[in-house]
Amino acid sequence: MEDTTATATTYHYFSIFTNYPLISAFTAFTIAQFIKLFTSWYRERRWDLKQLLGSGGMPSSHSSTVTALAVAIGLQEGFGGSHFAIALILASVVMYDATGVRLHAGRQAEVLNQIVFELPAEHPLAESRPLRELLGHTPPQVVAGGLLGSVTAVTGYLFTRIATS
Questions:
Q1: Residue 162 exposed, middle or buried by CB count within 10 Å (0-12, 13-18, 19+)
Q2: How far does the chain reach from its first CA to its final CA, in angstroms?
Q3: 110 CB neighbour count, 10 Å cutoff
Q4: CA 6 to chain centre
Q5: What is the DSSP string of 55-76?
Q6: For 66-116, what is each residue's pLDDT tens digit?
Q7: I want to staple 36 with a disulfide (CB 3.0 to 4.6 A). Which of 57, 62, 95, 114 is the partner?
Q8: Cα separation of 59 and 145, whole Å?
Q9: Residue 30, SS3?
Q10: Predicted TM-score of the model (pTM)
């Protein structure tokens, strides 16, 4: 009896590696971050490894992650279920926030950094560390992230269907 419980518990822990929605979300995030590395190189003609972990930029990794999660849940469990509804609302909030609050906070950071830069050297804030400016996303960056997430989830779904048949 105890061996069965131990085996079930072990399987329970390893089932995370077969969780299709989770794998889709992580894969979409990883692909988006690597694409940012290359779009940054294309724009600036230099490699910026901070793009692998940073926020902002093309495409939105937040959008690709939550979209991949929502689409994967919809494909796996059905688009009429409550799990998909929760994932869809989460994705909507994240994508709205990326183009709203975070985008405008980044623009305010640009203005504040410029003001601090123009302060006289003797001013107490003149030596303060600049604020991060690349926080949010433009609508095209969010749409690109959403498309990437959708394609990633559908590709993963088709791959698992082919692999199991």
A1: exposed
A2: 33
A3: 13
A4: 36
A5: -SSSS-HHHHHHHHHHHHHHHH
A6: 999 999 999 999 999 999 999 999 999 998 888 776 666 767 777 777 777
A7: 57
A8: 5
A9: helix
A10: 0.74
